[in-house]
Structure formats: structure tokens, C-alpha cells
Amino acid sequence: MCGGRGTRLDREGEKPLAPVAGRSMVDRTLDTLAASRVETAYAAVSPHTPRTRERLGERASGGGRVADGAERGAGSVEVTVVDTPGDGYVADLQAALAEGPEPPVLTVAVDLPLLDGPAVDTVLDAHAAAGSDSLSVRVPAARKRGLGASADAATRYDDGDGDEAAGEAVDPPDERVPAGVNVVGALDGGGDEAVRATRDARLALNVNRPGDRRLAKRILAGDRDAPTLPSGGVDWLGKPEPAEGGDRP
Description:
The protein has one domain (7-242): Spore Coat Polysaccharide Biosynthesis Protein SpsA, Chain A (Alpha-Beta Complex).
């Protein structure tokens, strides 16, 4: 998803093209997908992101190769550009699904510069293991704030961690934020949806504000006082839960 205005970043230019540690977020996202098991990507642009559309065309004409130094998974990812109306995330997602792939579909927001291939593969595995139509990935708002990131979309959900029947401690409902990586099972939002929550920094930092971009740059640079970036698979909190309360991302 790369059609947002990015007005909260307080900078000129399109959000997907905003550089983080010297590389645009849209390029980072495509490199991440190429380093995962994903083989085909549909890039949802809008009238707000004409230069992003041009950049995607440049990558396609160059063969869509993974950037030098990027971790390579199964190979480069094939990218198809899909035009959306630019009426917001949900409306644009529905438009992209109507024009693009058959569900279930992995959706990835362009504002996750810390995301990597192994984390994407873990989300795909979690969806397969849950046996549900859709999968929603969420991050505790307290974790985002603890990292120093913004948590503008925090919503109180009723899916606390743990399994009371199995004797595990059950956390009370808390504020959680959609991570921006999900699996959508149906165009009309039907079917059942599982929820997984994580504190993993790769899924916890969405670049929505200038401070988020500075934080991502420090983490990617390995600054000594910056949070440590995990590697490998994602550690989930508790067990898969059915979605309850709040709005589906």
C-alpha cells in the first residue's frame, strides 16, 4: 500500500519516497518482499503518489532486482502497479483487491522500513497455522511508545494475551495498533479472522511522523542508544485469538 499523502511527516514529497537511512520506503518495502517467499507484489498507488508510480516503473524496467546489499530470498519480486482512488487505506485496499490478486492476500504498508524477509515469512506461516480466512497483526501501543514511536491508531481490543483454560496468565485488554502487515481473506471483509500480537520492533515502527523517521534511521544505523533490531522469526504474544472489538484493518 503506497498511495498515502504522508501529511504527518511534515515534509515535501510523497510518503513512499521519503528516505530512511538513505533509501526510500517504497524501495525498502520491495526489497523486503523480494527477500521473503513472496513472488508477486501489487503496488497500490493513488493520485497522491504520481512520482511513486514513476519509481515503480523504473524498478520494473530494471528487472525488479533486489538492491545491492539486500538479503535475497527466493529472488526478485514481480511488481504490478494498481491504481486506487486515494480515498483512504480501506477504500484503496478494496480497490486494489478488486483489480489485483485473488484472496488471501498479504497486505504490507509502505511505512515499515525495519521490516525484513524473515518477518514477512513468519506472518505468512502464522496465517497458515491459524487456519483462518484472515490474519490481523497488532502491536501493543505501550511497546510503540516505549520504542519512542508514535501510536496514533491505538485502539482498545478485547483480545488479551494468554490462554486461561490452559492455565496461562491472561493479560487484560490493552491498547493495540494494527502493524500494517495483515492477510486479507475476502474482498467483502467476510470470513473469520485470527489475531496475532507482537512486540517485535520490525513490526512496531510505522513511519508516520518526523520522529518515527529519525528513530528508524538510528535503529538501522545501529546507534548504541537505539533499540536493538531483532532477526529471524517473529516472537508472538500468547496464542492466536479470534478478532473481537475494534475495526478490522
